[in-house]
Amino acid sequence: MGSLSLKQVEAVEQVNFNHIFGYEWSERRFHLTFYFDSRTRFDGYIPIVKPIGKENDIYYICCPHCGRFETASEAEIIKGNMIMSKCSKGGFKPSRIIVKHSKRSNGVHIEKVKQFGYLIDLEGWGE
Known about the structure:
- The protein has one helix at 6-10; strands spanning 14-15, 20-26, 31-37, 41-43, 46-49, 53-55, 58-62, 69-73, 83-84, 96-102, 107-113, 117-120.
- By secondary structure, the chain is mostly beta strands.
- The chain has one domain.
- The strands form four sheets. A four-stranded antiparallel sheet has the order 1-6-7-8.
- 18% of the residues are buried.
Protein backbone atom coordinates (compact mmCIF):
# COMPACT_ATOMS: atom_id res chain seq x y z
CA MET A 1 0.00 0.00 0.00
CA GLY A 2 1.35 3.44 -0.90
CA SER A 3 0.60 6.80 0.63
CA LEU A 4 -2.80 7.59 2.11
CA SER A 5 -4.95 10.69 1.82
CA LEU A 6 -6.00 12.82 4.78
CA LYS A 7 -9.60 11.61 4.41
CA GLN A 8 -8.50 7.98 4.71
CA VAL A 9 -6.59 8.73 7.90
CA GLU A 10 -9.45 10.81 9.36
CA ALA A 11 -11.73 7.78 9.04
CA VAL A 12 -9.62 5.85 11.57
CA GLU A 13 -11.31 5.45 14.96
CA GLN A 14 -8.26 6.15 17.14
CA VAL A 15 -6.31 9.05 15.60
CA ASN A 16 -4.36 12.00 17.04
CA PHE A 17 -3.60 15.03 14.83
CA ASN A 18 -2.32 17.24 17.68
CA HIS A 19 1.32 17.10 16.53
CA ILE A 20 0.75 17.14 12.76
CA PHE A 21 1.11 20.28 10.68
CA GLY A 22 0.84 20.63 6.93
CA TYR A 23 2.36 22.68 4.16
CA GLU A 24 0.52 23.36 0.91
CA TRP A 25 2.15 24.36 -2.33
CA SER A 26 -0.07 25.36 -5.24
CA GLU A 27 0.95 25.97 -8.81
CA ARG A 28 -1.18 26.37 -11.91
CA ARG A 29 -1.29 22.71 -12.82
CA PHE A 30 -0.73 20.87 -9.57
CA HIS A 31 -1.24 21.06 -5.85
CA LEU A 32 1.05 19.42 -3.27
CA THR A 33 0.50 18.97 0.44
CA PHE A 34 3.18 17.75 2.86
CA TYR A 35 2.56 16.74 6.46
CA PHE A 36 5.10 16.82 9.28
CA ASP A 37 4.98 15.28 12.75
CA SER A 38 6.63 17.47 15.39
CA ARG A 39 7.40 14.39 17.54
CA THR A 40 9.79 12.92 14.94
CA ARG A 41 13.37 12.85 16.19
CA PHE A 42 16.62 11.59 14.68
CA ASP A 43 19.19 9.13 15.98
CA GLY A 44 22.08 10.11 13.75
CA TYR A 45 20.43 10.03 10.33
CA ILE A 46 17.73 7.48 11.22
CA PRO A 47 14.31 9.03 11.90
CA ILE A 48 12.29 7.76 14.86
CA VAL A 49 8.57 8.43 14.43
CA LYS A 50 5.46 7.97 16.55
CA PRO A 51 2.18 6.71 15.10
CA ILE A 52 -0.71 9.13 14.67
CA GLY A 53 -3.43 6.49 14.65
CA LYS A 54 -4.28 2.84 15.10
CA GLU A 55 -7.04 0.63 13.78
CA ASN A 56 -7.05 -3.12 14.52
CA ASP A 57 -3.37 -4.08 14.14
CA ILE A 58 -2.42 -1.30 11.70
CA TYR A 59 -0.59 1.86 12.77
CA TYR A 60 -0.77 5.09 10.75
CA ILE A 61 2.44 7.09 10.43
CA CYS A 62 3.49 10.40 8.90
CA CYS A 63 6.48 9.46 6.73
CA PRO A 64 9.54 11.61 7.55
CA HIS A 65 10.89 11.23 4.00
CA CYS A 66 7.99 12.15 1.72
CA GLY A 67 5.60 13.97 4.09
CA ARG A 68 2.65 11.69 3.40
CA PHE A 69 0.74 9.17 5.48
CA GLU A 70 1.69 5.48 5.48
CA THR A 71 0.63 2.33 7.29
CA ALA A 72 2.66 -0.26 9.18
CA SER A 73 1.25 -3.48 10.57
CA GLU A 74 1.84 -4.50 14.15
CA ALA A 75 3.75 -7.56 12.93
CA GLU A 76 6.26 -5.27 11.15
CA ILE A 77 6.90 -3.27 14.30
CA ILE A 78 9.29 -5.41 16.31
CA LYS A 79 11.49 -3.54 18.74
CA GLY A 80 14.62 -2.42 16.94
CA ASN A 81 13.58 -3.38 13.39
CA MET A 82 13.56 -0.68 10.74
CA ILE A 83 10.36 -0.15 8.74
CA MET A 84 10.90 0.32 5.01
CA SER A 85 9.35 3.52 3.67
CA LYS A 86 6.69 2.98 1.03
CA CYS A 87 8.01 6.06 -0.80
CA SER A 88 11.64 4.86 -1.09
CA LYS A 89 11.12 1.91 -3.42
CA GLY A 90 13.28 2.35 -6.48
CA GLY A 91 15.27 5.33 -7.62
CA PHE A 92 18.69 6.50 -6.58
CA LYS A 93 17.92 10.15 -5.84
CA PRO A 94 18.89 11.29 -2.37
CA SER A 95 15.89 11.87 -0.16
CA ARG A 96 17.74 14.13 2.27
CA ILE A 97 20.52 16.65 1.73
CA ILE A 98 22.46 17.63 4.85
CA VAL A 99 24.54 20.81 4.82
CA LYS A 100 27.20 21.22 7.53
CA HIS A 101 29.09 24.44 8.09
CA SER A 102 32.55 24.27 9.66
CA LYS A 103 33.56 27.32 11.67
CA ARG A 104 37.16 26.14 11.87
CA SER A 105 37.76 25.82 8.13
CA ASN A 106 35.00 28.29 7.19
CA GLY A 107 33.75 25.79 4.62
CA VAL A 108 30.56 23.99 3.78
CA HIS A 109 30.21 20.22 3.50
CA ILE A 110 27.20 18.81 1.62
CA GLU A 111 26.13 15.25 2.25
CA LYS A 112 23.45 13.52 0.17
CA VAL A 113 21.73 10.61 1.87
CA LYS A 114 19.29 8.09 0.43
CA GLN A 115 17.02 7.10 3.29
CA PHE A 116 15.07 3.88 3.10
CA GLY A 117 13.33 3.48 6.40
CA TYR A 118 12.57 4.64 9.90
CA LEU A 119 12.10 3.30 13.41
CA ILE A 120 8.77 3.47 15.24
CA ASP A 121 8.48 4.42 18.90
CA LEU A 122 5.18 3.20 20.37
CA GLU A 123 5.76 4.64 23.83
CA GLY A 124 3.12 7.30 24.61
CA TRP A 125 2.05 7.80 20.99
CA GLY A 126 -1.61 8.60 21.76
CA GLU A 127 -0.81 11.65 23.88
